[in-house]
Amino acid sequence: MAEYKNIMVYVETAEENPVKVGLEMLSPAKEHAEKVTAVVIGSGVADAAKKVAEAGADQVICVDSEDYKEYNLDAYATVLTQLVKDENPEAVFIGGTQDGKDIAPAVAAKLGVGCASDVLAVKAEDGEIVYTCPLYGGTVLEDVKIASTPQVATLRSGAFQKVENPSEGEVVAKEVKVPEDVIKAKITESVKEIAETINLEEAEVIVSGGRGMGSKENFALVEELANILGGVVGATRPAIEDGWVSKIHQVGQSGKIVAPKLYIACGISGATQHVSGIMNSGYIVAINKDEDAPIFDVANVGIVGDVMKVLPVMIEEIKKI
Ligand code: FAD
Question: What's a Pfam family this protein contains (predicted)?
């Protein structure tokens, strides 16, 4: 017997496709609700909505309009809030992406309800949902119950698996208009080049470099290894602050929370604020010259050595495969 009658899942799209976490959230929603109502908002998103229905949502409400071509907090939060009022779900799940972290508190505030952030697990207790959330950069996990209906929660990418053998739901097109005066800020220009080539949250392989790489020139080895593995470059905050790579590469508490199949950490100490962003990785390889570095506590394989010696050998050997 499911705890809730209806859970709404807001599925963000990128390049007209549902993002990974959007589909992942369908599983905990299905586990705890009799009906899962997904919401897709955008322009040209009918195909994305169909993919969400195929991924296991019972119903997908598709709000497809030129008005929603670009993400706009005021517009999207207003549409989603309206749909919550229409559909009356007991909970609303939103992916913990950059936009998701923006929209979730806005929707919760508009509805005057509670919001749990960065949820790692969803379980049931006495007919209610309990959300497990990290505290202090992931050193402590707390279980949160939200004493309001509906409840809003952002779910972490990679923390849940997609629905196995889903049955296809239906897509319902809906028009929701947002009054002009609601839009307080408009995007005048968006620079797509960087965002399109770097998608840490969806990457299957990430090679990250830290302060131990020593310089921007040395950091090229991290980029080379990522390239030959078909992966994405990540970095710690100091590597970014030193100007070796741009902020978009930052992994960790104040960067991106990632869940690749393989994470290679090069010259990274393993500070809590970094490690909290990589804990959902499938397999972690760490290279550090200090055998006591905390990164080895979370690594599946640890290589004690100088990155400037280890990385060229790794690159050479992988090229032979
Ligand atoms: P260091 O801690 O300096 O470690 C460098 C490592 O490289 C050392 O372990 C050293 O042994 C090793 N090393 C040195 N030379 C070599 C060599 N030649 N070969 C092999 N190994 C070598 N950090 C993040 O990464 N992401 C975040 O999102 C983030 N958010 C933060 C938020 C807050 C509020 C705060 C306070 C901090 C945050 N930080 C974040 C910073 C974090 O606390 C650490 O300072 C940072 O992660 C350390 O980065 P690092 O491992 O590159 O550098």
Answer: ETF
